[in-house]
Amino acid sequence: MKFVWAFIVGGGICVIGQILMDVGKLTPAHTMSTLVVSGAVLDGIGWYDPIIRFAGAGATVPITSFGNALVHGALQELREDGPIGIITGIFNVTSAGISSAIIFSFLAALVCRPRG
């Protein structure tokens, strides 16, 4: 049953993004930013963690989880280190994902030739 809920919640997040692009006429960049900010706001008010516990990967894989990770790390470090923790917490939680994206993009650029 966990897989079904992960599929429904993750698919629901994707449907919201598609509706923003089709009905709201938002560009993909605006849609992505909206979903990241939505994840950040939901984590800020304490609603994203219950969604993660309920849906698992359905809530941690979509782009909303990136906003969640930013705010979650910042709030956690704020409690531990004070105001400076807001900045360090953001990098602490998301650094592995960002570093991986940079490294794999670089490797893909070495292997693939751009079309021109």
TrEMBL record:
| Entries under InterPro entries matching the protein | Spore_V_AE, SpoVA
The yes or no answer to whether the keyword Zinc is present is no
Which terms are listed as keywords in the entry? Membrane, Transmembrane, Transmembrane helix
Regions crossing the membrane? 84-112
Q: Which NCBIfam families match?
A: spore_V_AE (TIGR02839)
Spell out the protein name for this chain. Answer: Stage V sporulation protein AE
Q: Which organism is it from?
A: Paenibacillus agricola
Mind giving the lineage of the organism this protein is from? Bacteria, Bacillati, Bacillota, Bacilli, Bacillales
Please state the gene responsible for encoding this protein: spoVAE
